[in-house]
Amino acid sequence: MKIVWLGCLILALTSTQVHAQQSADTANYRKAQEVVRDLERIVAPSGIQESYKTSIGGIDQWLNVRGQDQANPIVLFVHGGPASPLTPTIWQFQRPMEEYFTVVNWDQRGAGKTYGGTDPKDIGDSIHIARYVDDAIEVAEYIKQRYHKKKIILMGHSWGTIVAMSAALKRPDLFYAYVGIGQVISTRENESISFEYALEQAKAQNNTAALKEMESIAPYPGDQPITRERIIIARKWPQFYGGLSAFRHASNYYFDAPLLSPEYDEADSRAIDEGSLFTLGKILPEFVSVDFTNIHSFPIPVVMFMGRHDYTTPTAPAAAWLGKLHAPYKQGVWFEHSAHMIPWEEPGKMLVSLLQYVRPLAEKAN
């Protein structure tokens, strides 16, 4: 009996200590979050700082709008994933951009705050690329009207390049220019290049664990369907070898960013993972069939930001596609110290590149 009670007492003390530590951690996170919140406050009289939901595509979807001067051009930034919202990470890189642009971040259908405020049963049948494209167009029309702009700049990252580029092709009249970051041209070609890169790295470093896992899905993608199980293994090792964030095995700075975000609470953060699982399972068959290689002309200016070490959406297909493209204006910009996460890895060069190549396109049109 004494042993049992002693055991219970130890467990009780351990549990109390754990809860105390968790409470202390939560308090520290909240303090840090308040510091970020205060830094992020836009106090300039000419500025704008709004976060709100509005009806897009028949459901409420969340927009985050920030800028130091409402007279600046608007950038609609279409996030990656699928279902990986930018909003909880913008505190890490966006603030300098806000001096020259008003930046609109949109939590897409099935992502972040939009997912958290929607019953998944109500949107399950709508998770299709065409619906996302129409949503993006509706968002562009809405913000153009709300903020009294003739046109806006459209920018996409990773999965978001599929949505954004399709929207630009469908409704070029809405946009001054299109900016692709981590551009997807052919998903299957990307998967093949990425896999071969990881295989080469694993062999060079004699990484038996990596080789064993990759051999279990080889040849990849091959003639087999790209299932969720296969793509998880195929993405794991290229990212381990710096294909997501250059020269890093992991990208905790990005995945843990919501902890300090003043825009997201705990429920919003949980919705990120829930929305990602929900969306990927439904969109994957369409995602792996994406192929823009037959698009040879573009109706508006195109600028591509390409990470030299990107093996999440490898840059070789995008560079080759851009080289052959006919467009009113086109420009490729290489980021030599970046992989897939250019806004985080080289934010200074990204801002300079936006000012050099993109903002003049909006100014010239006006």
Your description of this structure?
This protein is of the alpha/beta class. Mean pLDDT is 92; it is low at 1-20. The radius of gyration is 22 Å and the shape is globular. Helix 4 packs across helix 5 and helix 6 (187-204) packs across helix 8 (228-243). It has two domains: 48-187 and 261-365, Alpha/Beta hydrolase fold, catalytic domain (Rossmann fold), CATH 3.40.50.1820; 188-243, no CATH class. It has helices at 2-40, 112-116, 120-123, 129-146, 159-170, 187-204, 208-215, 228-243, 252-255, 266-287, 315-324, 342-345, 347-365, and strands at residues 48-56, 59-67, 74-78, 102-107, 152-157, 175-181, 302-307, 330-335. It has an eight-stranded mixed sheet with strand order 1-2-4-3-5-6-7-8, with helices on both faces.
CATH class category of the largest domain: Alpha Beta
- State the major sheet: 8 strands, mixed
Count up the helices. 13
Which architecture of the largest domain would the CATH scheme give at its second level? 3-Layer(aba) Sandwich
- From N to C, what is the helix and strand string? HEEEEHHHEHEHHHHHEHEHH
| CATH level 4 superfamily of the largest domain | Alpha/Beta hydrolase fold, catalytic domain
Distance between the termini: 84 Å
Strand arrangement, major sheet: 1-2-4-3-5-6-7-8
Mean pLDDT: 92
**Shape field:** globular
Uncertain regions spanning at least 5 consecutive residues: 1-20
Number of strands: 8
Q: Specify the helix fraction band.
A: 40-55%
Strand proportion, as a percent range, falls in 5-15%
Instruction: Specify the structural class.
Output: alpha/beta
The total tally of domains equals: 2
What is the CA-based Rg, rounded?
22 Å
What oligomeric assembly is this protein in? single chain
CATH fold name of the largest domain: Rossmann fold
